[in-house]
Amino acid sequence: MLALLPGEEIITSSNNDVLVLTNRRLYCNFNKYGQQHEQTITLENITSCEMIVVNYFWLLIIAAVLVIVVLAVAQTNPTPLLLVALFCAIGYFATKRSEVVIYSSGTKIKIQTGKLTTEQIKSFMSKVEDARNRRLATVH
């Protein structure tokens, strides 16, 4: 857990405290492949924020092509092709995810957003940018 510095206040945090935004820094704490990662970027060093939506659209295309082939050819036993199409469609939806990347001049914090909506992600990014601007106004 994040130990706050003197005069530091939490602005917002994720439900499980993976990301904590304070009036001085952005703190990230997560496990990846069994390893504990802790990372901090001071607000004045943040250069940009990015939201990335990752999906494998080609899986959906393969599923659609297979369904069209089954309908066009009308095989006697289309079950195997339909199962492959179903697995491709499920794979598309199972692998679709969003990520937020916060960049600084020397590092980046990259977090998968889980089930957060696009609006929640945009709201968080706005809070980061607002906190950064407020910090820069007090530092300079």
Task: Please specify the SSE layout and strand pairing.
Layout: E1 10-13, E2 19-22, E3 25-32, E4 35-42, E5 46-54, H1 57-73, H2 79-95, E6 97-104, E7 108-112, H3 118-139
Helix pairs in contact: 1-2
- Trace the largest sheet across and list its strands: 1-2-3-4
Number of individual domains:
2
How many distinct beta strands? 7
Low-confidence stretches: none
CA-based shape: elongated
Largest sheet: 4 strands, antiparallel
CATH-derived architecture of the largest domain = Roll
* Beta-strand content estimate: 25-35%
CATH class of the largest domain: Mainly Beta
Write the H/E string, N to C: EEEEEHHEEH
Number of helices in the DSSP assignment:
3
The structure class reads alpha+beta
Q: What percentage of residues falls in helices of 4 or more residues? A: 40-55%
Give the mean pLDDT. 87
CATH topology of the largest domain, by name, is: PH-domain like
Calculate Rg over CA atoms.
Answer: 22 Å
What is the first-to-last residue Cα distance? 30 Å
